[in-house]
Amino acid sequence: MSRTISATEAAREFSRVLDDLEHHHETVFYVERHGRPVARIEADTGRRARWREIRAALSAAPRPDPEFEADLAEVRAAQSVEPDPWAAS
Questions:
Q1: Number of domains the chain contains
Q2: pTM higher than the cut 0.70
Q3: Is residue 35 part of a domain?
Q4: 11 pLDDT more than 80
Q5: Is residue 58 situated within a structural domain?
Q6: Fewer CB within 10 A of the end CB, N or C, for the chain?
Q7: Which of 34, 31, 35 is nearest to 14 (CA)?
Q8: 8-state DSSP, 13
Q9: Inter-residue contact 29 to 21 (CB < 8 Å)
Q10: Phi/psi class of residue 61: alpha, beta or left (left: φ > 0; alpha: ψ in -120 to 50)?
Q11: What are the pLDDT digits (tens) for 38-70?
Q12: Which CATH number characterizes residue 14's domain?
């Protein structure tokens, strides 16, 4: 179940929002500021992948074909990357 609330209500009632997510089967709160959506607060499903599960899934996946590395290099070469304006000169 989802509910839309104002940013003011979210700030004033944050503890209640968390309680509703944790205990009262709310799944999502959409937060609006001046009638525009600005955030979404979701219930945590509690399911996290463990490193060993990720490794097992990657190990079971098919290996890239021999041309994959060349294809990847070709795609990278074709990309125009803009310089990072925040990088130190």
A1: 1
A2: no
A3: yes
A4: yes
A5: no
A6: C
A7: 31
A8: T
A9: yes
A10: beta
A11: 999 998 877 778 889 889 999 999 888 889 989
A12: 3.40.1620
